[in-house]
């Protein structure tokens, strides 16, 4: 699963096929946001979106990226655990 994260001055957003869904989180940094995986996933499933073009995004080179969730295994025989990677 790949998720595109958008950043405005006052919020984090997930880009969906229908627009941008606001992530309900208190995260101020990317690290804090990634720790709030449930909020990212909830926004990714949201149908409450706004047009991406209506957002005043921070500079794309520094604040827009893609987060890929990969399965990783803790130990032999353990259930897979999602792992977030930033690109």
Uncertain runs with pLDDT below 50, 5 residues or more?
70-83
- Total domains: 1
Strand order across the largest sheet: 3-2-1-4-5
Mean pLDDT over the full residue set: 78
Shape descriptor: globular
User: How much of the residues is beta strand, in percent?
Assistant: 35-45%
The share of residues in helices is 10-25%
From N to C, what is the helix and strand string? Answer: EEEHHHEE
Work out the number of β strands.
Answer: 5
Q: First CA to last CA: what distance?
A: 13 Å
Number of helices: 3
What summary fits the major beta sheet? 5 strands, antiparallel
Radius of gyration: 14 Å
Task: Write down the oligomeric state.
Answer: single chain
């Amino acid at each position: 699963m790949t998720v595109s994260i958008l950043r405005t001055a006052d919020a984090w957003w997930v880009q969906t096929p229908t627009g941008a869904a606001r992530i309900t989180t208190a995260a101020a940094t990317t690290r804090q946001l990634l720790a709030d995986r449930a909020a990212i996933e909830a926004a990714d499933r949201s149908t409450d979106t706004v047009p991406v073009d209506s957002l005043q995004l921070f500079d794309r080179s520094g604040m827009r990226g893609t987060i890929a969730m990969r399965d990783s295994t803790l130990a032999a025989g353990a259930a897979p655990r999602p792992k977030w990677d930033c690109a």
